Each structure stands twice: as C-alpha cells, then as structure tokens.
C-alpha cells in the first residue's frame, strides 16, 4: 500500500489529467455543445494544476522503474502542459469565430497531454509505447477535427496511416531490444549494452530511432508533416508543432542517453545522418511553398534537425542545448500560429504568403510581430532563435562535430530566403488591387503573437540561458559525458 501511494504521488500530474479528462468528457456529453467554452476553461485550469503537481511533486521511480520523475521529466512536462493550455486558448477563439463549438476539442488535448507526460517520464519500453500511443490516438482525431473540410479529413487519414507504420517500426525495434537484452527497463538495457553491443541490438536501436523520428517529423520520416500542417485546423497544427515534439525529444534523450549511453558511437551516427537530411529537406523544401502553414512544416523539419544534433553530441551540454532550443522554438511557433489566426479577410484566414503583401499598411503592429518572429526563427542575432542555435552549434563544436554544425549553419542561411521573402512582401510590396480590408484581430490570438515576439528580445534570452531548472534537467545522468 505505501508503494502504491508513493507511485500515485509521483504520477499525480498524469493521473489528474486522465481522471479530469474523463470527467470533462462526461460533463460535455450531458451538457451538450453549449458547454464547449466552459469545458475549455476547465481544461486550461486542469493543465495548470498538472503543471503545478509536476513541478512541486516528489522525485523518484514508480511501477518497478517504468515511471521516472526527475528534473528532465519535470522540465519537459511543464513545457508540454503549458503549451497544451495555450493551444486550447487558440482553439477556443478559433471555434468561436468559425462557429464550430465542440467540447471534445479541449478534452482531446487534455488526454493527449496525459500521454505526452507519460512519454517524458518513461523508464522502460512498455511505458514508452503506451505514452506514444495514448497521445497519438488523440492527435489523429484532432487532425481531422474539422470533419466538414476535405483537407482536414485527408490530413487525419494520412497521419493515422503513417502513424501506424511508425508504430510498427518502433515495436519491431523494441522486440529486438527485448530479445537480446531480456529486459524492458532502460537501466537494465544500459547495463547489458555496455558490455554486449551485439549487431541485433544495434538493429533494434535503429528501428526504435526510426519510429521515434516519425513523431518529431524528422526527415526522411517527415512525409506526413506538410500535408497535415496544411490540412488540419490551425490551432491543432499549433499543438502538433509544439507539445508533442517536446515530449518526443525528451523521450529520445532519455532513451538514447539513458538506455544506450554505452552505444553512443552507434546511435550518434544515425542521429547525425537524420539531422543532415532534415537540414536539407527543411531548407530547400520550404523554398517553393506558397502556403504559410506548409512553409512552417518544412521549417519545423529543419529545426528538429538542430535539436537532434544536440542529443547526438552525447554530453550534458548537448542535452541542455536541446532543451533551450526546444523552449525557444515552442515560443516562436506559437507566435506564428497565433498570428495566422489573428489575420483574416472577410472572415477567411490569410494563409497564402502572397496575401501578406502590404500588411504594414493595414496592420503595422502585426507586420512588426511577424518580422520579429521570422528573424528569430532565422537565427538573426540578438533574437531568441539565435541563442538556441548558438547553444546547439556550440555544443556540437565542443564535442568535435563542427562540420555537422557548419552544415546546419548553411541550411539556416538557405532557409533565410523564405523568411526574408515574407518580410519583403509585408514592408515593400503593395497590397493587391481590389482585396478586402483585413478584419479586426481576435484579442487572444493577437495577445499571444505579441507576447511571443516580445519574448524574442535579447535580455529575456540571456536570463533564460541561466535558468537553473534547465541546467538541472540536463544533468540527471542523461547525456553526462
């Protein structure tokens, strides 16, 4: 009984979300669609409560090592739950404007957050898979949430089919690892791999990495990303671009640098190859895009390559750089998607890049916000994105991977073309003749976009790089080297 109480205390954040999500589901089912706004508010409060429980809760292991609560998990969960809450805020405003009031939207995000929290705290292969599937099932439904839209239905179907393929790769890799080590627990796998790096175990590890790479949309496992980003509702894409990627990156760091720390030379080669392909696909693929959300999909592919490079380094500094990069990446992404939601003409969202021509004249504040965000993601000093890339490239150079870092720098320069094109359209090109005036910006989306832009300024970034929680999260035995 004491062990069960201790386990429940350690996993209180996920238990709160799971039970709370079911309660909200019952509330919505009985109250009907009119309860959508109320359920959204309660869902945000539930996610904030889960964040507080994760940050203030005890540390340790539960369920025979399957669940791990440590500073890495705490940092990841705080970022995941807060990102999910922001996605609900954006989704509530979107439902109000499109008159699609469905209480299932925030409930699905809450249930997905429970799975993402479990991913961050996974201590064995079974909890890893359960966490991935728990959050994925909710995301499949969210991708096709706007069921009257053909593109949204297509996005949900593609995500589901390719997600099933990635799950197969992941399970096959896990079965090989279990077959050769005789254990599912990361600590026991690490003990075996330190002295018996058999080819079968390495094959299993490669399949496991391929399955996890799909979850972060790293190339060449990115095939779902552009179509889902283009077809899914914008608030859903904002969620896809942030919280699930943080959960998957924390899981990859924990799995590789926890269970396979002794095989660093083998898995680092795979991650570096994936990073290089992601650099190229993200940089060059974005050059021909005309839809802003599709452009952000290719941008995310390149950015995930930078984050994976931090893990590939195999040092505490590398993990810290990855966490810093992902934190700043999440903020910039929310700024972009909030800005998309804040701009429309005659009730229709502005999505095509050409439609941003002359934005400085109609909405100068939003034009300035988009300029700051674009320069930040580009990595222009001294904005937020510069510090994230500086940390990753610095960690790579210190570990001897300076050529890979140089390739990432070249890709960043190439990607600069499509960000600078947007800036040029906004500030120097006139608006097309005969187009409607831009509608008044919704307050919640406008506020989030402006806040993200303000957060990109250097004084905040300097303070963030010295945050103790981030340092402690990277120094829990994963990536020490």
Overview of the structural elements:
The protein is an all-alpha fold and 481 residues long. The chain has a domain at 278-481. Helices cover 75% and strands 2% of the residues. It has helices at 2-10, 12-31, 36-56, 71-98, 104-120, 125-143, 150-181, 186-193, 199-215, 225-231, 234-240, 243-259, 264-285, 292-313, 316-342, 359-362, 364-378, 384-398, 402-428, 443-454, 458-465, 468-474, and strands at residues 60-62, 67-69, 344-345, 348-349. The strands form 2 sheets. A two-stranded antiparallel sheet has the order 1-2. A two-stranded antiparallel ribbon has the order 3-4. Helix 2 (12-31) packs antiparallel against helix 3 (36-56) and helix 5 (104-120) packs parallel to helix 12. The two termini are 39 Å apart. Residues 477-481 have low confidence and may be disordered.
H-E order: HHHEEHHHHHHHHHHHHEEHHHHHHH
Low-confidence stretches: 477-481
Structural class: mainly alpha
Characterize the quaternary organization of these chains.
Answer: single chain
Using only C-alpha atoms, the radius of gyration works out to 21 Å
Overall morphology: globular
Subcellular location: Cell membrane; Endomembrane system; Membrane
Pfam families: Proton_antipo_M
GO molecular function: NADH dehydrogenase (quinone) (non-electrogenic) activity; NADH dehydrogenase (ubiquinone) activity; quinone binding
Keywords: Cell membrane, Membrane, NAD, Quinone, Translocase, Transmembrane, Transmembrane helix, Transport, Ubiquinone
